Amino acid sequence: MKIINGLPVSKGIAIGHSHLLTKPSLRIASTQISAHQVSEELKNFEQILKEIVSDMDELIEKYTYTKDDKEILYTHKMIVQDPEFIKNIHFMIKEELLSLETAISKHFIEVTELFRNMNNNFYAQRAIDYEDVGIRFLNKLNGKNDEPSVIPVDSIIVASEIIPSQLTILFKQKISGICTEKGTFTSHSSIIARAFGIPAVVAVPSLLDLANNPVEIIIDGTSGKIIIEPDEETLKYYRGLYENELQEKKELKKIENLEAVTRDGKRIKLYNNIEIPDEIELISGLKNDGIGLFRTEFIYLDRRDLPSEEEQFVIYRRILEKMHPRPVTIRTIDMGGDKLSHVIYTAKEANPYLGCRGIRLALEQPHIFKTQLRAILRAAKFGTAKIMFPMISSVEELHKAKKHLKEAMLELEKENVDYCKEIEVGIMIEVPSAVIISDHLAQNCDFFSIGTNDLVQYTLAVDRNSEMVNKYYDSLHPAILRMIKIAADNAAKFNIPISICGEMASEPMYTQLLLGLGVNELSINPNALAVIKKKIIDTDLKTTEIRVDRLLELSCSRDIKTNLI
User: Fold this and answer.
1) Per-residue pLDDT for 478 more than 80?
2) Going by CATH, does the domain composed of 1-231 fall within 3.40.50.1820?
3) What is the pLDDT of residues 297-311, one digit of tens each?
């Protein structure tokens, strides 16, 4: 029996036999053509292009299993119809005398390598989409079927990585789970896996070396654990977990449409977080109270230039219209200058986490900030939008940010552009200084949202991405609980709502603790909605508050965890 760990991206237990899946390659032998073949190759390209678009339209219309799937195919269709792509293929055929197949291969290899070499996870994820489209083209040119050979039912797919079109097809073959050597939480394949409810673990080191033959394998999509050739005792344990999981899903289905109300009648608002615009189709169909956090930085990362006001307006409008009348909280750009160094000049920083990021970057780059604010204000006419500023550490920063918002309004007014004149403004509470002066901040904004991921990082001086100090990252540290309590008390004092939008909000073991600390809203991952709702429904708030007050008196997280509700 061997146990390895990866990144869990889709919850659930899967038990089955491994099936090694090889990913098609974009690399082919290069072929030249003669000048008199150019016309024929261009004609062939136009025909193949039409067929690819037609195939995608058919998939979008008939064969997609989820709305997420459909949105990703729309993205692939945009890649195919990109004028720059078409122009580049024409150039390589006419000027470099490359065959159509070679031109397609060269173009998509160059684009995917460009993205992967940017040393940015989000670009690496988008590279997979371009690779997927390139492989579609090569398969079409060679008359190959996209579908893999028949895979035994309940197989667990083992692969280096999986492209979205493969996953869509694999779902039809009733696989039970997925594990890959590469991948991230926000990749399109991970999104589809979650939408399909397929347990998945990615970024598993040396996976192909350990499971390259059909062997019995267990995937734990919650912990990220992969067990290869489990012994009987382990197998029995996980079969029990699997049966419990099935039963729990049946029970959670019963409360799907109920409101999140505690036993003593307190209504808790449950929002969802959204990572990328493609997720809106899934989230809009859930029984939630809206979107509590839309992380807009992905709009900036998935491109080679800065997004225009019009581009952002279209994205925000689409999300607001989909969610209407439920509110959407749009967090303004929250990243360091290092992530935008390819489009703006920023000085190199030794420690970007303590540097010019979040609201600091926005205030240092007012043209970027103002463009985003104008787009949000315009889109807010089509739904209920809220604006949230990240990494606020002082009242002065909040005043400066609101001043830019006011200027954006005046500009739109002067230009006679329609926009929302009344919009709620809130802040992220994620640095200790914001907690300490939360009474002052509460008097200058409409709501608080605690980003527990960063609050833990900054309070405990722990880089949450560092394996060396990861053991010091402790969400139950007494200082963290006291900070949440201080912010919640000050929010209540000045009658503004306070939510948690960090990972703590999506963990059922923390739900009653957070409610007892005074949090009245939670913004969570979509797949946690039902289980968090059940926790709320099972909570007696008054009793919980008394028990949490006792937890606040404890001096170490070990004791807090032992006594956790």
Assistant:
1) yes
2) no
3) 878 865 567 889 999
Residue 43 sits at φ, ψ, to 5 deg, of: -65, -40
Close Cβ partners of 316 (under 8 Å, ≥ 6 residues apart): 330, 375, 376, 379, 380, 385
Range picked from 82-91, 121-130, 376-385 for highest mean pLDDT: 376-385
What whole-number distance in Å separates Cα of residue 94 and Cα of residue 447? 59
Lowest mean pLDDT among 53-67, 229-243, 505-519: 53-67
Length of the chain counted residue by residue:
565
Tens digits of residue pLDDT in 316-329: 999 999 999 999 99
Angle, alpha carbons 323-327-332 (nearest 5°): 105
Amino acid at 279: E
Q: Where are the domains positioned within the chain?
A: 1-231, 267-427+497-562
**pLDDT above 70 coverage of the chain, percent:** 89
Give dist(CA 117, CA 236) in Å, integer.
44
Query: Hey, which residues does 2 pair with through a beta bridge?
Result: 228
CB 167 within 8 A of CB 187: no
| Residues that are catalytic | 188, 501
Q: Confirm or reject CATH 2.170.190.11 for domain 267-427+497-562, answering yes or no.
A: no
Rg (Cα) of the chain, in Å, rounded? 25
Q: With CA atoms as reference, report the closest residue to 228 among 533, 406, 17.
A: 17
- Name the residue among 275, 178, 270 with its Cα closest to residue 500: 270
- Side chain identity at 135, as an amino acid letter? I
- Residue 13 tokens read as 């237990």
Q: Which two tokens stand for residue 390?
A: 């990240």
- pLDDT number for residue 297: 82
Q: Which helix (H) or strand (E) holds 388?
A: strand 384-389
Read off the pLDDT band of 516 (50, 70, 90). Answer: very high
* Helix runs in 181-326, H state only: 188-196, 207-210, 232-254, 280-284, 297-301, 309-323
